[in-house]
Amino acid sequence: MANVITSDNFLNDEQTKSLTPLLNCIVPPDADSGMPGAGELDFIGYVNEFAPEAAAGIRSELDELNTAATEEAGSSFGELSGADQATVLEILRHRNVRFGRAIVVQAMACYYQDDQVVALLGEQSPPFPEGNTVHPGDLTLLDPVKAAGRRYREA
Amino acid sequence: MADDVVDVLIIGAGASAAAFAWSMADTRMRILCLEQGDWMNPADYPSTSKHWQVRRQIAYNQSPNIRQRDTDYPINEDESAVSVANFNGVGGGTILYSAHFPRFKPSDFRVKSLDGVADDWPLTYQDLDPYFAQNDKNMGVSGLSGDPMIPYHDMPLHHIPIGKMGDAMGRGFNKLGWHWWPSDAAIISEDYEGREKCANLGPCNSGCAKGAKSSVDIAYWPLNQRLGVELKTRCRVREITVDENDMATGAIYFDENGIEHHQRAEIVVMACNGVGTPRLLLNSTSKNFPDGLANRSGLVGKNLMFHPWGMVEGYIEEGMMSHLGPQGTCLLSQEFYETDTARDFVRGYTLQVTRGQPPVSVATNGMLRGDIPWGNDHHAAFKRYHGNSVLVGICCEDLPEEVNQVTLDPELKDSNGIPAPKLTYRLSENSERMMAHGLARAEEALEAAGAFQITPFGQVRHTGWHLMGTARMGGDPSRSVVNGWGRSHDVKNLFVIDGSIFVTSGAVNPTTTIQALALYIADQMKNNLATLFD
Ligand SMILES: Cc1cc2nc3c(=O)[nH]c(=O)nc-3n(C[C@H](O)[C@H](O)[C@H](O)COP(=O)(O)OP(=O)(O)OC[C@H]3O[C@@H](n4cnc5c(N)ncnc54)[C@H](O)[C@@H]3O)c2cc1C
Fold it and tell me: Is the ipTM of this complex over 0.90?
């Protein structure tokens, strides 16, 4: 798991153990399309490189999660079964609808710029130099506009 | 330290300066341009790296207050309903612009005569027509001739692709019986003048790595330099100097090491845009001009106009890949451009259809709104939104009002200690009514195109791309700052050529009109060289 082996980890052990399952609860892997789970990517490396200012918010959300997990199910989030994790998340998100925002924002940026994900979406990454082909447009659709004749005011 | 005297000193190397310098180069006068920013290196633009979607957020942010490059100056926007978007470097705002290039219309120059509001311009569409054409050629502009909403003009290059999204919106407009047309764009759709055609990278607003977007660092400045125009970067002008006969003598600037210079000149030309130019003029006080240079009318900095901008978003489930192609240009509708006395506002607006959001924005916004869920349904929901978003912008004509203004902030300063501009700006009642009308029509257009989840965002604050009106043109020195060809009424060898001189704002992106005006002013100067200061 990339999150665990990252050298420059800004999380403590308990936070680290909760992060991967949490990310996979946000974006789980999808066998049909081959899309990975968000927990399979190097989230910590991504945050270190592109959003170090988000680290504090991420830590506090993981602490909030672990507190809720301990209260509701008796141990920290990373130690729980998948079913218990789902229950804890449901309770927590019901209680605090904004829970997870800092993590979600960075998770989406990390996930949707990942090479494998981007390739599966059919995107060019980076856009330069290949670029993209775009349909030129059906200019016959302009026939009624042309037929309406001149529309600007003489002045 | 005093430098040699040049014939023409241009301050700022943005859109207007580039066009003006090109035209003046054939006089063989010594022309020098001072620019506070750097040359850009397209290889550094975010779209050359895989994390382009986040890399553009700070260093290429459109707000100088967020970007905070050392070449930027801060702007106090606390009392403004709109925040400024600009870029400070060779190319000015065109480094980040969308290159949407619609011209002003004939009626835009005659608003007082036609609609009884604001003032007429001291020139007409016909006066500018040849300069629009020349600038289209110099810049490399693509478009489809024959739009019934504007006098016929040939376009140098065929239109840029409108994509399946354009077709879908076009069908929607047709259903309503409304005008629409593919956008004119300062983006080359074919190889042109040694530049390769647009490859539809997408993120034009963080700089075009391909060089297909006609930013003026590419389209004009290299040519200008070959023609003999000198351009010095990292030179931040603090004030324009003036003698006891009310003639400008040059400019005091700081070089990149913070060393002060006095560049002397026979003619000084201001091209720092609708915020930068009044800032410098107001900061240039002297015995004869205690309220700022060229400001005997008291109008320097007044009549600031943006285009109040609304946005409505929708999604069309057609696998359109709507996020590909030049981001800010696709098509426009000018059904509501001209005044209609049956409405509760004068003048009008353009509906500007722009491309969709790239994946990170779709996912983040969708998650935060709650449309894209956590868990197993995430992937299917993301697919529903990805590549299917359409944005319709409402670009409202702003009318000049003296209360909307640029002044000098008493405390905030840039890194050279030059006072920062402070904006005071609010939307007029006319603009509010126009905006409400436009938002409703944009929703209607999206509905007709079959969009789902149509979300009106209302008037959006961070849309201050178009900076106009703060050193307006006119024949009456008590009601304007410069005359009909950009010369200051008060200082006969001082010219203003940027968006500051606009009398009214039209309801389209201004840069093609700014540049046509700059070419027009250069021609007027060349034609009147013998009597230029009379
Ligand atoms: C994100 C974005 C999108 C846009 N999209 C469009 C669009 O689609 N279509 C359109 O028509 N317009 C668009 N615009 C606006 C367009 O960029 C401007 O209209 C145009 O660049 C204005 O030209 P200008 O010559 O007046 O000033 P600018 O191009 O702004 O140039 C002014 C230059 O002066 C320099 N300067 C300022 N003060 C000093 C000083 N004290 N000393 C030295 N140099 C100084 C600045 O560094 C700058 O380079 C957009 C702008 C942005 C930022």
Answer: yes
User: Which residues of chain B neighbour A142 with C-beta distances below 8 Å?
Assistant: 144, 170, 180-181
In angstroms, the CA B386 to CA B74 distance is 36
Closest CA to B10 of B40, B37, B31, B41: B31
Residue B402: pLDDT band by 50, 70, 90 thresholds? very high
Q: Is the pLDDT of residue B223 over 50?
A: yes
Residue partners of A31: CB distance under 8 A and separation at least 6: none
The predicted pLDDT at position A8 comes to 83
Using omega within 30 degrees of 0 as the cis cutoff, is the peptide bond preceding A126 cis?
A: yes
Tell me which chain B residues have a C-beta less than 8 angstroms from the C-beta of A93.
374
Instruction: Please answer yes or no on whether B164 and A135 come within 8 Å at the CB atom.
Output: yes
Domains in chain B, ordered, with CATH? 2-44+57-531 (3.50.50.60)
Burial call B185-219: b when 16+ CB within 10 Å, e when fewer: bbbbbeebeebebbbbbbbbbbbbbbbbbbbbbbb
In this predicted model, what pLDDT tens digit does every residue of B384-394 receive, in sequence order?
Answer: 999 999 999 99
All residue ranges of chain A with pLDDT < 50 are 1-5
Chain A nearest C-alpha distance from B490 (Å): 31
Instruction: Give, as one character, the DSSP assignment of residue B251.
Output: E
Return the pLDDT at B1: 47
- Contact yes or no for A131 and B106 at CB 8 A: no
Q: What is the DSSP letter of B178?
A: -
Q: Does B50 touch chain A (CB under 8 A)?
A: yes
